[in-house]
Amino acid sequence: MSDRKRLLIVYHTQSGNTGKLADAAVRGAQRVDETETVVRRAFDAGVEDLLACDGLLLGTPENFGYMSGALKDFFDRTYYPCEGKLVGLPFAVFVSAGNDGRGAVREIGRIANGYGWKRVAEEIIVRGTVTATDLERCEELGEAMATGLALGIF
What we know:
The chain is α/β, with parallel strands linked by helices and 154 residues long. The protein has helices at 17-29, 47-51, 69-82, 102-115, 132-151, and strands spanning 5-11, 35-41, 55-61, 90-97, 118-119, 124-127.
C-alpha cells in the first residue's frame, strides 16, 4: 500500500480547451513522484474517487456564466454521500471561459464551502484561446498542488 498522497483532477471539456488545461495540470502534477495523480472526467468521477483523494483540482468551461452541467452533476452525485467527510480538503479551480469566468469560479466556491473544502490556490481563468502561457500556468498549478500534498503543506 502506498503512502503517497492522491491528487484528484476532475474536469469537463466540450470544445477541448478545458481538456488542454487539464492535460497541462496533469503534466505538472506528475512531476511530483511522491504524489499519485488520478484524472477523471466529471461524468466518470464519483464518491469513491472523491473520498480517496487528499487534494482536488476542478476544471470546467464556463457555460452561461456558470460551471459546466457535467461538473454540477459531479457535485450533485457526491455532495450528500461525502457531506462532513472532506472538511478542509485542499482544492483549486481552472476555467476556460469564452466570456468572464468569474461566475463559474464563484458558484464552484459556494459549493466547495458547503463541502467544507479549503481553496489553496488562486483560480486560473483562461479567456478565449488557450495560449502556451495558460498551459504553463496550469502545469504550475498541478505541480504546486501535488508538491503541497507531498510536503504536507495542505
